[in-house]
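To fix ideas, we give here one paired sequence and structure record:
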Amino acid sequence: MSLQHALLGLLHYAPATGYELKSAFTKSIHFFWNATLPQIYRTLTHMEKEGWLTATVQHQEGKPSRKVYHITGAGLEEFRRWLKEPPEMPQPRHPMLLKVFFGNQMDTAQLATHLRGWMEYHASLLEGLEKEVARSIEHYATLKGVSEDTQYWAMALEFGKMHTRMVVDWCDKLLATLNHEEPAKSPQDRPNSPGKRGKIRR
C-alpha cells in the first residue's frame, strides 16, 4: 500500500488538514502503515499536482490559517482503481529475526535483553490497540457518519491485535527457552521489566 492511497482513503471520508490526517494515522492505520508529518505533506503536494486533490485555505481569527485538502473526482477514481488491484506481497525484512538467527554468536544475556525490549514494546502496542484504537473506531464512525465502515476497520484491528499477541507470546517463549524454564501461562505472569526473569547463563 502506498502512502498516497492511504491518504486518498482517509480524505474520501472527509476533507482534512495535513495535521488532521497525521492524527487519523496515529489513531487508526499506524499499526500496519505509518507515516511522519513531513512525509504526509510531501505526498499531499505531489497528489495535488496529480489532480487527485485540491486545497483551500481557511483563515482563522487569531490563529494560523488552515490548508484543508479535498479529494477530487480523479482522486476518487484513482483510489477505487487501487482498491481493485491485487495487494503487493510483503517483502520480509526483520532485524529481530536476524539477531535471533545468529543468536549463538552473541552473548545470551544480550539476546535476552533484545527480546525483552521487543516484548515490552509489543505488549504496550497491544494495550493501545485494545483500548485506544477500539474507542477511536466508534468515535470516528460517529464523527464521519460512516457506521457501516466500522466492521471493516474492526477486521483490520483484529489482525493487528492477533499479530501483536503472537509477537509477545513468541518473545516470552524464547526467553523461557534461554532461561530453561516454562513460558508464562498468561499475560499477568509475564515480566513487566527486564529484571523480572532470572539471570541467563550459557
